[in-house]
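USER:
Class, as today's exercise, take the chain set out below, and explain how the chain folds.
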Amino acid sequence: MIDDELAIRRVVRNAFQDTARVIDAATGAEGVDRAAAERPSLIVLDLGLPDMEGIDVCREIRGWSRVPILVLSARHADEEKVQLLDAGADDYLTKPFSTSELQARARALLRRAATEEGQGEPRVAIGILVLDIAARTLTRDGDLTHLTPIEWDLLRVLMTHAGRTLTHRQIFREVWAGRQFGDAQQYLRVYVAHLRRKIETDSLRPAYIFTEPGIGYRFASAGDFP
């Protein structure tokens, strides 16, 4: 936990005291040093640090570690959230926040990290969806669902990053392989609408693909389903 506010560090410590050992730091430099020494499973990072910007802490850690980074901040600007996610943060929670939401976001990031660590896994199963990466197939409740090549690539990116908010730029870069044409946000809006019609029970009330307004999209994690 990297935050200069003692009260916030106490809230985070209490949220995880029964499930994890919490190490805290009050400055960016101390946080980077402790992260390097302790190799934590998750980093909770505040942006308003006294010695350096939170985005610089994020870039520094991301340069040598893939540890999930959950940003906490009182700042609400969409552009700032996008910059943080593009710099390597995995999720963003604005203050004030509920303890239960903090715990849920942390669990989702830890599950995703565990899945990535064990990957060789050719299948991703979330709810009634099973994505077979090697066979390039999707089944929905056991039935094969036809996807176009772009729909497949888009779903693969979303499902293999389940629980993580991805920016429009991140998704567009992976799905369209860096080709610079058109409006990324508009392209994604069209293809996400196509995907929702194929995978959601009710495309107007999605249970799988969530829109993060002004930022991008987040796919539900396996733990969101019984």
The helical segments are 6-16, 28-38, 54-62, 78-86, 99-117, 149-160, 168-175, 184-199.
